[in-house]
Amino acid sequence: MEEPIIYAKLNQTGPISTPLTAIRDPSGRREAGTRARREEPSETVGITSLGSCPWKHKWLIIGLSVTSLLLLISSVSLGIMMYNTEGLRLGLDLCSSERRSLNLSLSQSQNSERNLTHRLQHSTQLLNCMEQAIRDAEQTDKCPPGWTLFSGKCYFFSDERKTQVESDSFCYRNKARLATVKPSDTSLLRSIQSRKSEYWIGLTVSYYPSSGWYWPDGTIEGRLWASPKPGSCATLGATLGVTACDVQLPWVCEKANDKLDLIDRMNKCNKEIPQ
């Protein structure tokens, strides 16, 4: 009787290193079982190797993701740094512009300060000059010695005798002029008439705008009827009269009192103190 033939089939994914043969005897069965057991580790090893591949891919993906994240963070950080750098540059430009503006404002302020200081010094000097002029006017008499006050003006009645031209020069040297005596100057007129003498006065001949006798202020005198003639000058005693200009007579000078002269002194301060 023939021995039954036993076949064994192994499902392997890997290569079969040793082909299986038919075993005809019980000892052969043992041998086949032994070979099958020997072959099992190879099958296990193949399955284990194949199963580890997905984990390698996962770690690779994780590594790439981390690297990408780091690159993204670096890019963002670099962008922030560039933005901050640009902002700092703009801020620096703005500060430089403000600094230039402040320097310009400072220069203008210094110029204004110098101008104000100069004006203050000028005003102080002008004030001191005017105060001195006021003190001088208050400390002096209303009229200089030898002069008489009439209606706010000072008059000098000479005791000497000079020609009309010499008399006029004397008045000019004393900052005065030959007197103007109008009918309204009643006090002065009475004082002259009481002296029983004729005086040279400021009435002179003029041919413009028309021929006549004129006072220094340009007004014409209608009380004197004598026709103007070359070499003729007016006198005043008891009445108005006409005499040759080269005759020697006393004279009357007229000038403003010291109080009125204060304005001239102040004007002099304005001229003497530079702006």
How is this structure best summarized?
This protein has 275 residues and is α+β, with helices and mostly antiparallel strands. The protein has helices at 26-51, 53-139, 164-173, 186-193, 258-272; strands spanning 148-150, 153-157, 177-178, 199-200, 204-206, 212-214, 232-236, 240-244, 252-256.
Written overview of the protein:
It is a single chain. This protein has a domain of 109 residues: Mannose-Binding Protein A, Chain A (Roll), CATH 3.10.100.10. It contains five helices and nine strands; from the N terminus they run H-H-E-E-H-E-H-E-E-E-E-E-E-H. Strands 1-2-9-3 form a four-stranded antiparallel β-sheet. The chain has a three-stranded antiparallel β-sheet with strand order 4-7-8, with no helix packed on it. Strands 5-6 form a two-stranded antiparallel ribbon. Helix 2 runs antiparallel to helix 5. The protein starts with 25 loop residues before the first helix and ends with a helix. About 15% of the residues have low confidence. Strand 5 and strand 6 form a beta hairpin. By secondary structure, the protein is an alpha+beta fold. It is rod-shaped. This is CD209 antigen-like protein A. InterPro entries: C-type_lectin-like, C-type_lectin-like/link_sf, CD72, CTDL_fold. One of its GO terms (cellular component) is plasma membrane. Pfam families: Lectin_C (PF00059). One of its GO terms (molecular function) is transmembrane signaling receptor activity.
Query: pLDDT average, as an integer?
Result: 77
At the third CATH level, what is the topology name of the domain at 148-256? Mannose-Binding Protein A, Chain A
| CATH architecture level-2 label of the domain at 148-256 | Roll
Fourth-level CATH superfamily of the domain at 148-256? Mannose-Binding Protein A, subunit A
How many strands in all?
Answer: 9
| CATH secondary-structure class of the domain at 148-256 | Alpha Beta
Q: Major sheet: order of its strands?
A: 1-2-9-3
Question: Which residues form runs of ≥5 with pLDDT under 50?
Answer: 12-51
User: What percentage of residues falls in helices of 4 or more residues?
Assistant: 40-55%
End-to-end Cα distance, whole Å, is 156 Å
- Write the element-wise H/E pattern from the N-terminal end onward: HHEEHEHEEEEEEH
Determine the number of helices (DSSP H or I, runs of at least 4 residues): 5
CA gyration radius, whole angstroms: 67 Å
